[in-house]
Write a structure and sequence with these properties.
Distance between the termini of chain A: 56 Å
Shape of chain A: globular
Number of domains of chain A: 2
Strand order of the largest sheet of chain A: 1-3-2
Helix content of chain A: 40-55%
Order of helices and strands of chain A: HEHHEEEEHEH
Largest interface: A-B, 35 and 34 residues
Number of strands of chain A: 6
Strand content of chain A: 15-25%
CATH class of the largest domain in chain A: Mainly Alpha
Structural class of chain A: alpha+beta
CATH topology of the largest domain in chain A: Arc Repressor Mutant, subunit A
Oligomer: homodimer
Radius of gyration of chain A: 17 Å
CATH superfamily of the largest domain in chain A: Winged helix-like DNA-binding domain superfamily/Winged helix DNA-binding domain
DNA sequence: AGCGAGTTTGACAATCATTATCAATAAGGA
DNA sequence: TCCTTATTGATAATGATTGTCAAACTCGCT
């Protein structure tokens, strides 16, 4: 049976408090800073659990780290500013259907998909001159 | 200046010979099996180069490994069997437009996107009994 | 409240992919 | 051919993540 520990709560809350995606390491560091004596391994486990239970969303940063984010229920995707980290949840029924369709049309089953858009948000767009490299 | 070495060629060829995505480790193992004395670090470097030059496509497996694949020119996405690695290139003008639209509607610029579908291919679907664990 | 079984924790070791190091090698121009 | 210098490769280093296992804690039960 799944037990209720303050550690698990702490992770859930810390995740809720964040704006964008965090790495397990980062979240752990934050908790430690806040005075929590929680262990690193525990944070990893809690995040993995949350992801499985659908309370957290996870994705891989381009560098290969696993990032997590508090997740409203349901399946959705993200629009992420690659400069400041701002994250916007996007729904995409059309894309869901498309993915499903592409899969089955090719004989694939149990389709999952990775659909994320990275870019520069409004604010960051202004700073990075769109000129030459 | 960029020099021409048989190692670089070997990697390019080995990549071309593959059906789906391979990890650097996997490709290196294959080359070694084929009798090549090529080094692991070299394979990593060659693959990274090929990816930069646009001759290879790279993505992250759900487990966090970097996978590579010989890439015809142009932008496209993939339908990947998570069991046997079979990969099908898919074009998706609709998705391209959608991504672009979502981005600009939210004030984002320079949008890139990650769109990949993982599933079980026809053949593998049959083996994995869709029943209980 | 007290007990007991079994889950969870956490410090640390182990693993695994990837990158850095650096002396030796080899490519390509002169 | 000779020289300059990019490239190679064995290995160490890094860094995230997972496994280990005794001790601590939860929760149901009495």
């Amino acid at each position: 049976m799944k037990r209720n520990t303050w550690q698990r709560e702490a992770v859930r809350e810390a995740l809720d408090a964040r704006e964008g995606f965090v790495s397990a390491q980062g979240l752990h560091a934050g908790l430690r800073d806040a005075g929590s004596p929680i262990g690193l391994a525990t944070v990893y486990r809690a995040l993995a659990d949350l992801a499985v239970e659908g309370e957290a969303d996870s994705l891989q940063s381009p560098e290969g780290e696993s990032l997590y984010r508090a997740c409203s229920t349901g399946h959705h995707h993200h629009l992420i500013c690659r400069n400041c980290g701002l994250t916007i949840e996007i729904e995409a029924d059309a894309v869901e259907r498309w993915a499903q369709q592409v899969a089955s049309r090719n004989g694939f089953t149990q389709a999952q998909h990775v659909v994320d858009v990275f870019g520069l948000c409004d604010a960051c767009s202004l700073r990075e001159a769109p000129g030459t490299t």
